[in-house]
Q: What sequence folds into this?
């Protein structure tokens, strides 16, 4: 607010009149690129995150998945845009520090995509669990297969699971653990080229790990109107009913 004219104007810079509040509630329109629309919100959020503030928005105005568009076709749905906003927030450190950007996402219970919204972070957590478990199993069994290729066998037989008993057992164990067949064959081919070990990345459940940076929803605190989804310190989730006034 310009104190001389009493009019609301854009600041010339971020320092002469710095933002006076810690967090802001921002609106959004069901529009892709125009002012006040979806992509414009990411720009406004970036400005707030850059200088240390947080932001929250109710996204209920955004149409649901498969709803018709005015120009023809069907909407890709609310969740596709929430994932973009979540990635945008994750790329910006709040106030230029190592602190995550503070982003709150709200949705009315009667929105068509409410079930997908409520389950969003639950499913992403399951993806992390799959990445962590799968990476450990792949690393273990694929290296066992490669080691078995160099067991004491005649040169022409060491890469043949039918003749190399240790390799046969390693392959069977890998298949029991549901290791993909193409990876099993790939490791045997690498062994034929002279490799004796394989570096398969192992993921963990640290919130700063590659596993969590791979999935979406990690920079958004989600809430549904009348029911709020809370995140606990151990990354668990539960619903708490909110009494209406």
A:
């Amino acid at each position: 607010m310009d104190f001389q004219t009493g009019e609301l104007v854009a600041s010339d810079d971020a320092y002469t009149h710095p933002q006076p509040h810690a967090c802001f509630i921002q609106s959004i329109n069901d529009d892709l690129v125009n002012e006040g629309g979806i992509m414009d919100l990411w720009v406004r959020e970036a400005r707030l995150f850059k200088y240390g503030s947080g932001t929250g928005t109710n996204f209920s105005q955004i149409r649901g998945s498969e709803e018709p568009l005015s120009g023809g076709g069907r909407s890709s749905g609310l969740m596709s845009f929430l994932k973009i906003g979540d990635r945008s927030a994750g790329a910006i450190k709040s106030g230029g520090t190592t602190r995550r950007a503070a982003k709150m996402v709200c949705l009315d219970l009667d929105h068509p995509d409410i079930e997908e919204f409520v389950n969003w972070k639950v499913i992403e957590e399951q993806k992390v669990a799959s990445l962590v478990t799968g990476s450990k199993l792949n690393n273990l069994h694929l290296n066992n297969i490669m080691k078995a290729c160099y067991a004491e066998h005649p040169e022409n037989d060491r890469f043949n699971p039918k003749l190399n008993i240790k390799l046969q057992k390693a392959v069977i164990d890998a298949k029991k653990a549901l290791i993909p067949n193409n990876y099993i064959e790939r490791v045997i081919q690498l062994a034929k080229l002279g490799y004796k070990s394989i570096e398969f990345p192992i993921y963990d459940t640290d919130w700063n790990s590659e596993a969590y940076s791979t999935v979406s929803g990690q920079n958004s605190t989600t809430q549904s109107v009348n029911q709020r989804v809370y995140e606990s310190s151990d990354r668990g989730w539960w619903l708490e009913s909110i009494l209406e006034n």
